[in-house]
Amino acid sequence: MSYKGLLLDLDNTLYNYDAAHAVALKESLTFFSQKFGLSDMDALGAFEKAKADNHTQLVFTAASHSRLFYFQRMLESIGAFDVKMTLKLDAVYWEVFYEAMLPDPHVLEFLSTCHIPKCIITDFTAEPQFNKLIKLGIDPWIDHMVTSEEAGVEKPHPFIFMRALAKLGLNPEACLMIGDSYKKDCLGAQALGIDSIYYKGEKEKEDVAKGIFVLDNFHDISHWME
């Protein structure tokens, strides 16, 4: 496949977001529950409600993912809002999260040997996503980044893809998108005529005619692109 540019999702594509999040959330909720004498169940419930409320109020925006907002809402829900404590909970979460991150198998090899421009296209606030690239050690191979905070919209909105294409200076047909979300990554790319790889996706969703391909690991992706 003779693509001239690569669009890459970050979370649950280049590394296992779910695993890192689980460890970081457990640590931050333990800190929260011990600080305020709450049960683990109550702490988790406060987090889930804060997350749901934040997503409802800030739907389709990068701020809907803000851990700082989640922790702020948690503290407010128990009448214990404090600026320093909000920042502390956020710091605990991200410190553990970054330490728990590991690139998916063959990702480093793929990025270091794939010699076409690469742009990360990701739903989240910008600063954590930049930090993730550094912690994963993949920042030397990333040429551009577009976050939903920068774009003002989230995938699958076409504008976030268009912004990435503009940074690469390429037309849609010259690029390939790789991501773990069929709706956000693959269908979002397809709407603009960008081929995509549904990473670790469901085989029954494979639709080669639409330019969507299913591959399970970056070793196979590398050979497929050759």
Main sheet?
6 strands, parallel
Q: How many discrete domains?
A: 2
Beta percentage is 5-15%
Count of helical stretches: 10
Which regions have little confidence, pLDDT < 50, spanning 5+ residues? none
How many strand units?
Answer: 6
Order of helices and strands: EHHHHHEHEHHEHEEH
> Radius of gyration from the CA trace?
19 Å
- The rounded distance between the terminal residues' Cα atoms is 6 Å
Q: Given the C-alpha coordinates, what overall shape results?
A: elongated
**Assembly state (oligomeric):** single chain
Second-tier CATH architecture of the largest domain: 3-Layer(aba) Sandwich
How would you classify the helix and strand content by structural class? alpha/beta
The CATH superfamily of the largest domain appears as: HAD superfamily/HAD-like
Please give the CATH class of the largest domain: Alpha Beta
Helix content: 40-55%
Task: Determine the CATH topology of the largest domain.
Answer: Rossmann fold
Give the overall average pLDDT: 95
Largest sheet: spatial strand order: 3-2-1-4-5-6
